[in-house]
Design goal:
Number of domains: 2
Order of helices and strands: HHEEEEEHEHHHHH
Protein name: Crp/Fnr family transcriptional regulator
CATH superfamily of the largest domain: Jelly Rolls
InterPro entries: cNMP-bd_dom, cNMP-bd_dom_sf, RmlC-like_jellyroll
Domain Cyclic nucleotide-binding: 7-103
Number of helices: 8
Pfam families: cNMP_binding
CATH topology of the largest domain: Jelly Rolls
Largest sheet: 6 strands, antiparallel
Mean pLDDT: 94
Length: 193
């Protein structure tokens, strides 16, 4: 995590020590929940290893995946975390994960003790907003096939890590659609390049 922050804004030794003080390691096993709908998000979560997903179940119990989080990424329900309101989302573990977490009281203390972190988290929030805007734009302007090929291009490390059903849920298509595209791509590897 120190390397992650240093890549955004270089930290002093005292600021690195604050990370060690306020962020706490935690392990979750596959299929465990980090957050369940109806609970209040208690932590900002940074992924050291493994994979999680954030999703919302529809009225038929079908998950609609908003986000995958793997190494060196964040996953949380910010609205629930900062407003202390019940989450409408679930975050669960797709692969065993090691994470670092910080609670609201500690992040506010961290911001006060080292204002640089307030700036770092603002930059992270802005970057994630851009990613969200790009994803929304893709969903309204690209075909399902183009969204699939963009996913492969933007997240090549997830292609073999995730079940097809999760990729389909993220893209808003059926698993059968993904199967057809994978089959077609296997026959013609230049597709989607």
């Amino acid at each position: 995590m120190i390397d992650f922050f240093n890549a955004i804004i270089p930290l002093k030794k005292e600021e690195e020590d604050l990370i060690r003080q306020y962020f706490h390691p935690r392990s979750y096993r596959k299929r465990m929940f980090v957050l369940q709908e109806g609970d209040i998000c208690q932590h900002l979560t940074f992924v050291l290893s493994g994979c999680l997903r954030m999703y919302k179940d529809d009225e038929n119990g079908n998950p609609h995946i908003l986000l995958f989080a793997t190494e060196n990424s964040w996953i949380n329900d910010l609205g629930s975390f900062y407003d202390a309101k019940k989450s409408l989302l679930n975050i669960d573990v797709l692969e065993n994960v090691e994470v670092l977490q910080i609670n609201l009281e500690d992040i506010i203390t961290l911001y006060r003790r080292a204002p640089k972190f307030d700036r770092i988290f603002r930059i992270l929030t802005e970057r994630n907003l851009v990613l969200l805007q790009n994803r929304m734009l893709e969903n309204i302007s690209l075909s399902a096939e183009d969204r699939y090929y963009n996913f492969l291009s933007n997240y090549p490390n997830l292609f073999n890590r995730l079940p097809q059903v999760h990729i389909a849920s993220y893209l808003g298509v059926s698993p059968e659609f993904i199967s057809r595209l994978r089959s077609r791509r296997a026959r013609n590897p230049l597709l989607g390049s």
